[in-house]
Amino acid sequence: MDVKFQDVSLAYDNSHNILNKISFTIPEGQLTCLLGPSGCGKSTTLNLISGLLAPTAGQIFFGDQDVTKKDALARKVGMVFQNYALYPHMTVLDNICFPMKMAKVKKADRIKRGRELAALVHVETELTKKPSELSGGQQQRVAIARALAKSPSILLLDEPLSNLDARLRVEMREEIKRIQKETGVTTVFVTHDQEEAIHIADQIMVLNDGKIQQFTTPNRLYDQPENLFVAKFIGSPIINTLPFADVRDDFKNVLPAGILTSGYTLAMRAESIVPASDPHEHLTLMPLMATQVQSNRFGRETSLTLNYGDHEIVADGFREQDLGHNGRPMRFAIRPQGIFVFDQTGKRIWPATIETNISPLKPTEVIHA
């Protein structure tokens, strides 16, 4: 079932709002990530969905049912926390079966279901072990199986990967995605890691200061950030930003007059900054001048730092053979995709939609290889 918030607010001690009249619908059968920095309200939102917290104002619906005043048990949700909280004295199978035991499910039925869930999360060979004998990834799998044992209407995952090492996090995010697709259960996943969210989610809700900044697909978040916060939060390396006033003259022939007047911040993704001799000239916006500050190679990737408009920017669209010498002027170009202009409030004002492209240069102005 889907989850709907309608003008939900939460304030502690009736003072400062942690969440302020947020409204959204989490789609049924999909994996939705709540993403944002620490203190943005994502875990609070998850606890409101679970019933561990009650809103100060507003309503919460599971499908057509108003669950605002129902507790966590009545909402029939499954939860996996950062600390998996497995029972140390129980075996893997007993841990998985415990919610069914509490629900008075017959022993034969719960053992059968427990083995099915163990197979689903790939711990079927560990059933007689205690949690202390398992790796962190295996413990997480058991915790997910235990959460699924109660056949939850919603599965809630609160920073479940943060205690794992980097390689295991990559493995487990793929496993969580697989498990969600196989079960079809509506899943809400909380994380502060934008790479994790982009790889695992069908939909991402970006939160900051208790407000929804944007709620859409991972690709759309990257391609069409609605505001400067989202543009800077999504993507690695972080998007280049510089005062539009410092470079406005370079764009006076390609941007509408209204954008030139209202523009406050220019943002450029690193991969949109390419050599002036880029052979894909139909993608190239315009030639610009900069000074090469330094270059760094990381395996097959090359990162270039340029001084443009008295501001340092990072470019990822260069190959090693394209690099010049530090301290020397060089020509570069920028592609329309990944270039944004924001007004003083941080709202994106250009491009207006994903279909809007920067006005192309006249044929005689296009740089050829």
Structural write-up:
With 369 residues, this protein is of the alpha+beta class. It is 25% helix and 30% strand. It is globular and about 75 Å long. It has ten helices and 19 strands. The relative contact order is 0.11. Strands 6-7-8-3-9-10 form a six-stranded mixed beta sheet, sandwiched between helices. A five-stranded antiparallel beta sheet has the order 13-17-14-15-16, with no helix packed on it. It has a four-stranded antiparallel beta sheet with strand order 2-1-4-5, with helices on one face. The protein folds into two domains: 3-223, Rossmann fold (3-Layer(aba) Sandwich), CATH 3.40.50; 238-365, no CATH class. Strand 1 (3-11) and strand 2 form a beta hairpin.
The number of domains is 2
CATH topology of the largest domain: Rossmann fold
The overall pLDDT average reads 88
The whole-angstrom Rg is: 25 Å
CATH class descriptor of the largest domain: Alpha Beta
Poorly predicted residue ranges: 355-369
Tell me how many strands there are. Answer: 19
> What are the secondary-structure elements, in order, as H or E?
EEEHEEHEHHHEHEHEEHHEHEEEEEEEE
Tell me the name of the CATH homologous superfamily of the largest domain: P-loop containing nucleotide triphosphate hydrolases
Tell me the strand percentage band.
25-35%
